[in-house]
Design a protein that fits this description.
The chain is an all-alpha fold and 171 residues long. The chain is globular, with a radius of gyration of 18 Å. It starts with 13 loop residues before the first helix and ends in a 10-residue tail after the last helix.
């Protein structure tokens, strides 16, 4: 699979499409899944300590809350699909999570000294995330961005797990 290339540069072949899907799932998608969910856990853990368990009500803007209510309503209408998660944080995207981190910088910086750098890193991977999330083939440089952020974020989570007074909590 190391030589897997975007199927769109060749004549149609079902196996080439399948190979691309397997490659991206194995190579990039799982890392993006982890990145987005690590960020959810970090935000929830830090803001629960810095504000309260009800931090979401304090931090998130009314437009985002309205959008979430609409999406939840859509899920309830259908009734046959899996819900994104028990907390409203599972109904927002990486770009929204990055905005929450930036908006709460004054609180996040107490635990993550280089919070501004992290906001920039998340923003830098937003477009590659959207490419993969919308079933497109990212460039080598974008795959590298995903790899590096995943590796660095894993290190941050490990460091936070050892931070006194901070309990890592799943929202």
């Amino acid at each position: 699979m190391p030589g897997t290339q975007d199927f769109r540069g060749f004549h149609f072949s079902r196996s080439r499409v399948d190979d691309c899907g397997r490659y991206l799932g194995h190579r990039s998608y799982w890392k993006l899944y982890s990145i987005e969910n690590y960020l959810r856990v970090i935000l929830h853990s830090v803001l629960t300590v810095q504000i309260a368990p009800t931090w979401w009500d304090v931090v998130v803007d009314p437009n985002t809350k309205r959008n979430i209510l609409r999406v939840k309503s859509d899920y309830l209408k259908k009734g046959v699909h899996t819900s994104p998660g028990p907390h409203d944080i599972y109904y927002v995207y990486l770009s929204d999570l990055t905005k929450i981190m930036a908006a709460t910088r004054h609180l996040m910086i107490r635990v993550i000294a280089d919070v501004d750098t992290w906001v920039a890193k998340f923003e830098d991977v937003r477009i590659p995330r959207n490419l993969v999330g919308h079933m497109n083939f990212p460039s080598v440089a974008d795959r590298k961005r995903i790899d590096v952020l995943h590796l660095e974020l894993t290190g941050l989570i490990q460091r936070l797990e050892g931070t006194r007074g901070l309990r890592i909590r799943i929202p």
